[in-house]
Amino acid sequence: MAELSRGGKQKETPKVVILDYGSGNLRSAERAVARTGVDVTVTSDLEAAAAADGLVVPGVGAYAACMAGIEQLGAGPVIAERVAAGKPVLGICVGMQILFDSGVEHGVETKGLGLLPGSVTKLAAERIPHMGWNTVEVPDGSRLLGGLAADTRFYFVHSYAAQDLDVLAQAGAKVTTASHDLPFAAVVETGALSAAQFHPEKSADAGYTLLSNWVATLR
């Protein structure tokens, strides 16, 4: 498929791959991304993942299980090479968490992809999991959350998060925070790498806006 550019010439519709490594709400993510008008493929084909205009890394469940799936598929180097080459990657939920150096669950530390600094740890909150709609604190200049009102809510389901915000700031990442008793990283943007702790595919129009903003970076 193709669309018209501003000059009247046809240009190819961006191609997005949703990485199938055995974890994630693949079909709901597929529908949500397809709503933005791009060509979407759900696949475990690493060549397709490397070549796509945009790559979505979903994830639900345990950090260690998701990393095991990534390692079994051999997807880690592909994700890292895309980021190094400036080719957009979007991590969602645990797909965001595995981008960090490590994750700690039940006292066990699992090595992550090391594309974001710091560790993912259990939320220091009275009620776990953090489930439901919550607002976020958006920093100036956020591409993913541009155009959204300050009281916009997103849908979260998680018990772990990246909570060392200073480490991310020192690395130059743009961090959107949310709070569940204490603040944590809800969105991280750095170069070609973007990540959301909440589920855009479950966040109605707000999620659609975020995905549309991400897709706009592919054009």
Automatic annotation (TrEMBL):
Residues of the active site: C93 (nucleophile), H199, E201
Organism annotation: Actinoplanes aureus
Annotated Glutamine amidotransferase domain residues: 17-207
Keyword terms of this UniProt record: Amino-acid biosynthesis, Cytoplasm, Glutamine amidotransferase, Histidine biosynthesis, Hydrolase, Lyase
Subcellular location: Cytoplasm
Protein's UniProt name: Imidazole glycerol phosphate synthase subunit HisH
Primary localization: cytoplasm
Cytoplasm found in the keyword field: yes
GO biological process, one term: L-histidine biosynthetic process
Underlying gene: hisH
Associated pathway: Amino-acid biosynthesis; L-histidine biosynthesis; L-histidine from 5-phospho-alpha-D-ribose 1-diphosphate: step 5/9
PANTHER family membership: IMIDAZOLE GLYCEROL PHOSPHATE SYNTHASE SUBUNIT HISH
Subunit structure: Heterodimer of HisH and HisF.
Catalytic activities: 5-[(5-phospho-1-deoxy-D-ribulos-1-ylimino)methylamino]-1-(5-phospho-beta-D-ribosyl)imidazole-4-carboxamide + L-glutamine = D-erythro-1-(imidazol-4-yl)glycerol 3-phosphate + 5-amino-1-(5-phospho-beta-D-ribosyl)imidazole-4-carboxamide + L-glutamate + H(+); L-glutamine + H2O = L-glutamate + NH4(+)
EC number assigned by the record: 4.3.2.10, 3.5.1.2
Entries under SUPFAM superfamilies matching the protein: Class I glutamine amidotransferase-like
Gene3D superfamilies: 3.40.50.880
Gene Ontology cellular-component terms listed: cytoplasm
GO terms of molecular function: glutaminase activity; imidazoleglycerol-phosphate synthase activity; lyase activity
CDD domains: GATase1_IGP_Synthase
Described function: IGPS catalyzes the conversion of PRFAR and glutamine to IGP, AICAR and glutamate. The HisH subunit catalyzes the hydrolysis of glutamine to glutamate and ammonia as part of the synthesis of IGP and AICAR. The resulting ammonia molecule is channeled to the active site of HisF.
Top-level taxonomic group: Bacteria
